[in-house]
Specification:
The complex is a heterodimer. The relative contact order of chain A is 0.34. Chain A starts with a strand and ends with a strand. In chain A, strands 2, 4, 5, 9, 10 and 11 form a six-stranded mixed sheet that branches. A five-stranded antiparallel sheet of chain A has the order 1-3-8-7-6, with no helix packed on it. Chain A is mostly beta strands. Chain A is built from no helices and eleven strands. Chain B is built from no helices and eleven strands. Chain B is mostly beta strands. Chain B is globular, with a radius of gyration of 13 Å. In chain B, strands 2, 4, 5, 6, 9, 10 and 11 form a seven-stranded mixed sheet that branches. Classes of the chains: A mainly beta, B mainly beta. The A-B interface holds A 31-32, 34, 36, 41-46, 49, 51, 89, 91, 93, 95-104 and B 31, 33, 35, 41-45, 48, 50, 55-56, 58, 89, 91, 93, 98-107, 109.
């Protein structure tokens, strides 16, 4: 059974820092991995999708990597801003159907 | 950018009542899903729907729940007799194909009193 773990659970940093959020999973047989952002009480906004044949994806200040052999993905946020404050969720798709989510990393970036 | 639309954004219902949560997926998407998130917990899979039938459901998705795609645009989740523990945020999602990313709606917050 696939298990997804995100470390750290919470992170508080000053503005301008570069950050690494970690996601680990137990079963390397995945179709793709998707990082989402969730603001309090809101929906899920897709940030990056990495398909199983890819190693990384970049969008603006965000870079996500995928290492299936070690069961790990990282989300790198460059030059963090207060507007980046949110919960970041890692989710894996193992096939036709469900996404399996981690519990998230709650990020606070203070001015 | 195309969106998944969910209505209502918030619904309060009495225990034992039936509720229908509505979703309009992105028009060219073929796979449809419902997830839920109880306050403070992980997002959990409920059900997936493809080609007008359920393709997978979780243990949560018991006989109290049903899904329907009544026309070419809407996708609904019905809870027949709500319980207090059904209180959660319910998310609809859709995607084009099995190797594509998911697009989520903004959710319906269901409160059962």
């Amino acid at each position: 059974k696939q298990e997804v773990t995100q470390i750290p659970a919470a992170l508080s940093v000053p503005e301008g820092e570069n950050l690494v959020l970690n996601c680990s999973f137990t079963d390397s047989a995945i179709y793709n991995l998707q990082w989402f952002r969730q603001d309090p009480g809101k929906g899920l906004t897709s940030l990056l999708l990495i398909q199983s044949s890819q190693r990384e994806q970049t969008s603006g200040r965000l870079n996500a990597s995928l290492d299936k052999s070690s069961g790990r993905s990282t989300l790198y946020i460059a030059a963090s801003q207060p507007g980046d404050s949110a919960t970041y969720l890692c989710a894996l798709s193992g096939g036709y159907n469900k996404l399996i989510f981690g519990a998230g990393t709650r990020l606070a970036v203070h001015p | 950018e195309p969106e998944v639309t969910q209505t209502p954004s918030h619904q309060v219902t009495q225990m034992g009542q039936e509720v229908i949560l509505r979703c309009v997926p992105i028009s060219n998407h073929l796979y449809f899903y419902w997830y839920r998130q109880i306050l403070g917990q992980k997002v959990e899979f409920l059900v997936s729907f493809y080609n007008n039938e359920i393709s997978e459901k979780s243990e949560i998705f018991d006989d109290q729940f049903s899904v329907e795609r009544p026309d070419g645009s809407n996708f609904t989740l019905k809870i027949r007799s709500t319980k207090l523990e059904d209180s959660a945020m319910y998310f609809c999602a859709s995607r084009t194909g099995v190797s594509d990313g998911y697009t989520f709606g903004s959710g319906t917050r269901l409160t059962v009193v």
